[in-house]
Amino acid sequence: MPSLRPTPRRARLGVSLMFFTNGVLLAALLPRYPEIKSALDLSGTGFGTTVVAFPLGAILTASLAGKVIRALGARRVTAVGSVLLAASTWLAGTSGSTWAFFAALLVAGALDAVVDAAQNVHGVAVERWGRRSMINSFHALWSLGAACGGAVGAWAAASDVAIGTQMLVNGTVWSVVAVLASVLAGVPDAQTRPTLAGEEVPGDRPRARAWRLLLPLVLLAICGTLVEDIANNWTVLFLQTETSAPEVVAGLGLTVVLAAQFVGRLVGDPMTDRWGRASVARAGGVLIALGMLVVVLPVPHPLTLVGLALTGFGSATLVPAAFAAADRVPGLPAGTGIALLGWLMRLGFLVTSPVVGVVSDAVDLRAAMLLPLVAGVVAAVLAHRVRTSGAALEGPAADPGPAPGGSSTAGEAGAVTTQEER
């Protein structure tokens, strides 16, 4: 794919735009979910079962992402996938039946899984080239994009802008940005490495040791994505139905979660450098649990928004840390660790919304919102397992790769206990 002369700064800008674009494309539709639910006359269970199409589509394609990325290149996959993703979100917003809505979300989820893996693979390559921790800031830009997309969607809903018009303009603008981002994000070919520490690993099938290193990262990431999934699909409905919040305030609930997540990811790299990855993950789990405890209590709307902010901030670094670690699991071809983690992580999405829908119909949505509280507790308990993954959790300081114009030695990929593992 064409690119300008690669530089670490330019590549970082390109990857940042990739993540921002992905966040905008997906979040712009979410504040319109109550409108779509009403138009399709869906119950809580019916809506929860329908929106599960997105994670289902992701699960169907995520395991193939590594092969697609190696065949076509991460930049090309991100650009083309983003354009197609924009089209599928427009189709979801303009669907006239439950099955059409389900099908559009299924395609969107399938595309997003591959785009997500591709942008993370390329982001880690840029991080390696620049010899600085960047993965949290990339995910921060995704959160900022999602917050902006959610805010625009909430404004469009409050202003009675047609969903089709909103999604068409949104998709067109950010498709252009996605292509530009891929042009900017070029890196030297030397930054694409087949395996960690020079190991020759045929095929994509992970060995037993790789699974032992990967599974704790998957569980930790699921705790983070569960919070995101419930925030995306249920926060607006919860605020409207359980707290009688006006439409604008309800739309702000999602924006608050995503904005707080953005702030958490923005400071995630320095926090990890100072206190270590396990400590940051443990604190994140505690904040998720405390935040959701506030949310489920019958408190005024401002306090509910504070609880949502704590939840978003707490979940901020769980997924980026897991992706960065998965890329360094020994014995896996390039991109396979990230693709496998993304695939398994999305299994949590498959059950989250249906469970919330069933509980909301059987009890109420307030009771269903206890699920992310439990996820926060689990994340805090699992945080120490991050330490046990050894080499898989080394950051750029332990495995910097070749610097621009320099070279690396075999020792740089060795297993060393670092500040990040505490």
TrEMBL record:
Keyword line: Membrane, Transmembrane, Transmembrane helix
Species of provenance: Auraticoccus monumenti
Cellular-component GO terms for this entry: plasma membrane
Name of this chain's protein: Fucose permease
GO molecular function term, any single one: transmembrane transporter activity
Membrane topology annotation: Multi-pass membrane protein
Sequence segments annotated as region (Disordered): 393-422
Major facilitator superfamily (MFS) profile domain sequence ranges: 11-387
Leader sequence segment: none
CDD domains the UniProt entry points to: MFS_MosC_like (cd17393)
Segments crossing the lipid bilayer: 12-30, 42-65, 77-93, 99-118, 139-159, 171-190, 210-228, 248-268, 280-299, 305-326, 338-359, 365-383
Biased composition (Low complexity): 393-415
Subcellular location: Cell membrane
